[in-house]
Design goal:
By secondary structure, the chain is mainly alpha-helical. It has seven helices and no strands.
Length: 137
């Protein structure tokens, strides 16, 4: 039993995409705000309790914080991230999750692409609204 719980701490299921890509493979190459946004989107999207919106709301808060920054960190493009995003994009049937992560990477690695960050934020807010509507029904 102890091995199973250690495994869950080292690699929680919500941080592994069905393609095998792990959240840390992408987030560790990103700036603080957008890396955290990726982490929260990832956890909120793949958590077994898909109706919860808290992690998606945290992701939105980190994106808004990044958008409000006068000077944004310039992250160097990382081919590890490009390969990881393209790997899981082929498995993401609806495409929304991979689009959000791709947009956040684009914002971070193309020197402050606000439009990409705003698009990711809009998709997250739409998902939050959808989940709240589902919970209310």
């Amino acid at each position: 039993m102890e091995e199973a719980s250690e495994s869950a701490v080292a690699l929680p299921p919500a941080y592994r995409h069905p393609s095998g890509v792990q959240c840390i493979e992408i987030a560790r190459h990103m700036s603080f705000c957008l890396g955290n946004a990726v982490k929260y989107v990832w956890r909120g999207w793949w958590d077994p309790d898909h109706t919860v919106t808290g992690d998606l709301e945290k992701a939105a808060r980190h994106i808004r914080e990044w958008l409000s920054m006068e000077v944004r960190p310039r992250m160097p493009m990382c081919h590890v991230v490009t390969r990881a995003v393209s790997r899981f994009a082929t498995v993401d049937q609806e495409g929304r999750f991979s689009t959000i992560v791709r947009d956040l990477c684009r914002a971070d690695f193309t020197h402050g692409n606000e439009n990409a960050a705003r698009h990711a934020l809009a998709l997250i807010m739409a998902e939050i609204a959808k989940r709240k509507d589902t919970n209310a029904a």
